[in-house]
Each structure stands twice: as C-alpha cells, then as structure tokens.
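S., here's the first fold you wanted:
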Amino acid sequence: MADYSLITKHKLLHMMKKMSRNSDSYVKRPGKDFSRSRKISFFDTLRFLLSLGAKSLDKELLDFFSYRPDLPTSSAMLQQRGKLKPNTMKVLFSVFTASLPKHSNFHGYHLLAADGSELSFPENKKEPLCHRKIPNTQKGKNAIHLNALYHLNSGIFDQVLLQPVHEKDEHSALITMLAQTEISGKVILTADRGYESYNTFAHILEKGWNFVIRGRQGDRGILSSLAIPDQEQFDVEYPVVICKKHCRGTKEQPEFYKRIRSGAKFDFFTEEQTEYPMKLRVIKLKVSEDLSEILFTNLSKEEMPVGMLQELYRMRWMIETAFSQLKYNLGASALHSKRIEYVLQELYAKVILFNYCKSILFHISLPQKTSWKYDYQISLSTAVDICLKSWRCPNGTAPPDVEILLLKYKVPIRRERSFPRTPSPKAVIYFTYRIA
C-alpha cells in the first residue's frame, strides 16, 4: 500500500513511453512528425498535457521546464500539440483506466452512474458546433458536453465521451459508452431523469446489467402510459411489450403493449422482430412532505428492497461531486486553448489525472478512532494537490511521500447535512485571468 502512488505513477509513465516508441501510430504525419530531435519530444508533449494547471501557458512552461533559459516558447508547444492525432489522449485514457482496479463492494455489484456536464471555454466563433450566445449580452462562449460512466465503488471515470454542445445527445452517448466498457459481472447502472427511455433500458438489458433510473412524472414520461396505483407510494412490476405498430391485438391490451411513438428510436426492431418484451419494476418514493421520486428498475423486490434502492440512488450523487472536482480541483474549467482539437486533448488529460489521483486515494486506509465524534476521510482538495505535485516532480527528483502526507489532511464525514441545490451559470475563465 505504501508504494501504490509510485506504482501508479510508473504505470502511467510506462504507458506514455510505450506510445512514444510507437509514435507514428499517434501522429498526423507518420515518419515526419516528431522524427527530428527537438526541445519538445512526443513523450514531453504528453507529459506536459498531463501536468497543466490553471496558470497561463507561459507560466506552465516555466514550471514544466524548471525555469531553464533554453525552454521552448508557447508557440513551439502548440505546434507540437498540433501534430498529435485527435484520439491520442483518448487512447491513453482508455489504456490507463483499463489498468486500474475496479471493486464491486455493494452486495457484490459494480455500481456505475451515468450523467453529463457542460464545460465552458473562451469564445471561438470558428467552432460553430461549440459556440453559444450568452443571453442579454454581445458576448458568447464555447461549450462542450462531457458524458461519463462513473464507477461509484472505485471513484473513477470508467468511460467518457465528449460532444460539442450543439450535438449533445446523452442517450446515444450512453449507448456508445455501454458498448465500449469492459466491466462485466454483476453491474447496476444508475442515472437521472434524462436517461429514461425504453431504448436505453433495452441496451442495458442486452448488456446483461441491471439499472435504477429515475423517471419523469406527469404526462411526458413512460409513467404516463402505465396503469399506476393512486397512492402516495407504491412498488409495482409491469411486464410490457415494446411494439413497432398498432394492430388489433395491441389496441385491445394498451396496458401491456407500448407502441414506440413516431420518430422515436428503438435499436432492436428488425423486419422479423417487431416486438420486444421487458419487465419493469416501478417504485414511487415519498422523499419529503411535498416531493416524491419515480424509479425504474429491473431488480426484483427480493434482491433489492425499496430501502436499498433508495440508498443506491442516493449514491448516484457522487458523479455530480466528481464533475465538480474535475472542473475546480483538477482545473478543467481553466483550459489553455479555444480550438476544439486542443480542448479535447486537455479534457482527456484532466480525466486521466482525476483517475490517477482517485486511484491513489482509494488505496489509502484512514484508521478511525472511537474518540472522534465523526468518521473522517482524506480531504480531496488537498489530496489532489499532493498527488499532482508527486506527478509533476521532474525525472531524477524524488516525489513527496504521498501516503504519509495524505493521512495528515482529513475532514469529517457529515452524512446528515444537506443543502439546497442552486445551480447558476459559471463565467468562462479567460486566458488573461489566470491564477498567478
């Protein structure tokens, strides 16, 4: 355990060196790009992307090259970054994340959460798919939508998919990520209301997974077509058949046959198969005096009682916390470019660093004392700083003793606390307003 941070660092460095030895597979012009000896090698370019903080690009270069008089300019670094294929950092993310241990400690299940978050960066009208006008102003900004599968047990992003904000499609993104993930065995996927869809349910079922997805109430969602009890709380199972078109038999049993509306997508219909049976369990929970929630699942009542489902769905909030940590602790809200190609490089680098830090943190055991009023956990904001300092130590420089330092910074776990969610638009952090 004491050497896990060094093992993780060496693992990531080894993967980068392996890519460097086969750099022609990751550059736009094989045989030409990075073929000559320059100040910034292929390996240095990857390491620089993984070392970026929230300072200006010039200050980041000063730190990275240890204030050497012959350090390269920011223009030279941008030219080197421009030689990388668009999927280079995504490949590094996939390989590194696949090597990290993933634990199934919720009654033997892997828990995954699906969600998305918007990331803003300075305005660039040359990227129309990302450009968005700011209401009531002459200004605009650019934005990209981050879709993610987050492994709740291990605290890391298992899959990410980045979409320009005007091509945002969380349903198709989730289906793509389901096809890409290598997690197998007993899995439960949790998601919020935006993912309620028969097509999504079917993809999860075909994967052999279970799901707990929050549903919409009223006349817009799946619930409106089901014969639900007139009760404040219920737990009912509905066998349904998704069908492509109405006929006499389907019209006579509307509570059983659910026709996909015109224009809606369902990927499992063929010329031969026009019906798709599935069994849904629908739970209505009273959260407070004037608030209730609808959950859709395929887990049985015997295996997953209502109380466990409530606990499981509450755990989904960890992905929201992870997005916040990625933006503000790892610096994904302070990027160094307006070009989408470079933005994607930096965002994949931030997710790699997030998984790097959380994997180390997960392997630190914090002993609890009976004299403490609360249970304690390691402070994440301080832990990120320590892990990043260890990562950024130049070759030949001893990194800090990560494990000992992490144990010095702990915060109480206060599960009873809750705060109202007051989302507000966040201002773009422009290049000229960076941390000194």
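And the second, which I think is the more interesting of the pair:
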Amino acid sequence: MTTELKVGQEFKKVISERRSVRKYDSSWKISKKEIEELLNEAILAPSSSNLQPWRFIVINDQSLQEKLLPIAYNQQQAVDASAIIAVLGDTEAYRNVHTIYDKAQAEGFITPEIKETMVNNTWNNYSSFSPERRRNIALIDGGLISMQLMLAAKAKGYDTVPMGGYDPVAFRELFQIPERYVPVMLIALGKAAAEGRPTTRLPLEQVTYWNEFQGEK
C-alpha cells in the first residue's frame, strides 16, 4: 500500500508540474542514449489495432535545427532545445500488420489462429478505409504517443513543448517525407532556462457530462 501511494504521488507530481517550456538552456545536451530511453517509454502508448503508426525524426544537429528555425516560424526553442522530435503518422501502417502479429505470436501472446484472424481483419478493414479516415487514425495515435513522450521526459527532469506552429509543406520538403506520412507535431526537448508559465483549466463540471451531452448548442 505504501509503495502504491508513493507511485501515485509521483505520477501526480509529473502531470501537475509539466509545463510547456519555450526557453531552453542551449548549452545543455541530451545524449542519444537518453533520447532513445524516452522514446522506448513513449512507444508503449496504445494505438489503433496496435499498428503503431508513429515514426520519429530526432533533430539534434545544430545546423539542421538552424534550417528548421524559419520553418518553425522563428520560434527560438527550435534551435535552443537539445533536440526537436518530429512525430509523424503512417497512414499505411496496416502494411506492417504481419510483422506486428508474427511477433505477438512468437512471444506467446496470441495463437496462430487468432493471429491469422487479426491479420486478415486488420488488413481488410484498413485497406478499405478512405485516406481521410486513415489520416485521422494516424493523427489520433500520434497525439497519444506525443503526450506519453512529454510525460516521460518530465519524469526524467526534462522539459518539452508541443509545436503545431510550423510550415508542414516546407518541413516535408526539408526531410523528403513521403506522402503516406502525416506530420503530427514537433516536440522541443531540453532543459528549461525559464519555467513555463502556469495556466488555468476550465472547471471539471463545465467540461464533463454524465450519460448525456449538456454542452453549448
């Protein structure tokens, strides 16, 4: 019971103290190993049919961050953060279904019969979805993993800010990203040079309804 309480308190501290930080210590560098540890925690996030459509571009080369600066509308964190992690969503992630479920079978999580059913159903369903629907799924799953990455970073003492303000066309051109991948967001990662400002939240009763919708019409 004591251990459970401590874990609960630590998690509450992480989610309550996370801030969107825009000023970073440019001299602070996070190692490749540490970034990989964060990403390994992030990829435990859930995804539609476990297709794991997320892909990452870790941008920690200073000259490349300088090229990213105007694409990110000159937001200074683009160059001062230790790294910018671009989160992409694969709209054709269902093409990896055999690899994913073969591994699940090999590790004893599912039987060969269940694997065959899941592979066939997943392929047939997703391949028939409209491009817009597959894009929406990739964006939802990309949002899930982005939040998990930011919380994992805060738990290790680092700071982040999600960046939706950038030119996706120019970003795609810079990194030669194929059309099947949709940019979800950029995440600045580093050590804060100034704390993110506290923000307020709407009261729970204003955003939560029980058993019926009661919001503004």
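Why I say that: The chain has one domain: 16-197. The mean pLDDT is 94.

Talk tomorrow,
H.
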